Amino acid sequence: MKVIASHNQSEINTHHKDAVSNRAFLLRYEFLIPLLLFIIFLSVTLPGISWGAPSIWHPDEVVYIAIHALQGQTEFDSSNFNHPHLPIYMMLGLGKILIALGQTEKEVLIAARVLSAVLVGLTVVLAYIIPRRMGYNAAVAGLSGLFLLSISVMSQYGRFAHNDTFVTFFTTLTIFFLIQYKTSDNRGWLYAAFFASGLAISSKYSAISLAIVPGMLYLWTMRRVLLKDALRILETLFIGGAVTYLGYAAGTPKALLWMAFYFKRLIPALAYNANYGRQPDSVRGMFGQYAVFADGIGILMFLLFIAAFLWGCFKLLKAYQAKSNAETYRAILLLSILIIDIPIILSYNYPVRFFLPLMPLFAIPNALFSNDVYQLARHSGTSRYSKLV
After folding, report:
1. Cα–Cα distance for residue pair 339/175, rounded to 1 Å
2. What is the C-alpha separation between 281 and 303, in angstroms, rounded?
3. Integer CA distances (angstroms), 173 to 83, 94, 169, in order
4. pLDDT tens, 256-280?
5. Which of 4, 71, 349, 368 is the most buried (most CB within 10 A)?
6. What are phi and psi of 315, to 5 degrees?
7. How many CA atoms lie less than 13 Å away from 165 in the CB half-sphere?
8. Could you count the other beta carbons within 10 Å of the beta carbon of residue 314?
9. Torsion 130-145-337-279 (CA) sign
10. Quick one: DSSP state of residue 356?
């Protein structure tokens, strides 16, 4: 019996050493996890990305504007205000490099699609990094990246040269900067978030509500000294607003260099976009978005999203009752979801690609929810529940 007990103890010690060794390896080479997620995404998305080239079969690929500009057929920044210009300028710059290297419009189209795929791949990487900055371990962060990777519309629309991939990346980058700000309490990260939100708006007008999030987080952080430090708070918000506008102007320079000309034409374009696609039987996104969202990502993933969101709200309520700041990071994610969704709520036109900026913000709470369920099962006293989870 002593021999058997000794053997069992030795086996346990071996397993423990292996677990410690694996954990040390994971921590040392953790960069391989987001890199692997990025590579997997591109390996799924890039094959067949040249479909239709040099013809543009998808009407929403704004790369056609950049190609026309390369051919000298349009000055889009003076005539096209249906879209902000950051994606078009980036595709145009990429196109000029390729044309200078002797390539054709076909290669420009393909390269623009590859650029979109890379941006979505980087978004998957951010979906891993954000939970790590929130203090969660690599397993939870990896699960977040896997959740986003498993949403087929990310790959499906990641191969289109359109502005939804740009706004998705810059929206997620904004949230990353906000998490960094909350972690470090360094206002440089807050201004970076303001600037990134400006880049998101310069990618697509629907991101305009995103600019509210950094300001709301800052006000919440300073809530105990709102009256005492009112001037400093107003100064920070003013600088933040200016930085947001600079971010927008970085991708749409006419908004800064020729304001009167730009805004005179922008306002009618926004009014047109507000009612675009409206039919007699159209309903606003407040009521119609859920069926579109569920159909786009699958009913099981949709139900998981809803469960994670409701669980997050419950956790926030418990933290508020306990007067705890333990769920601040989750609050940032849920608040961002609600605010980013506002343009969809008010719109009559909301195809599934409009939901792309929300996908990372749902994938991360999904991972946190799964981790919470696992921890509850683990401490339930029955090991099979945690193994099942």
Report:
1. 12
2. 27
3. 21, 22, 6
4. 888 888 888 888 877 777 777 777 7
5. 368
6. -65, -40
7. 31
8. 12
9. positive
10. G
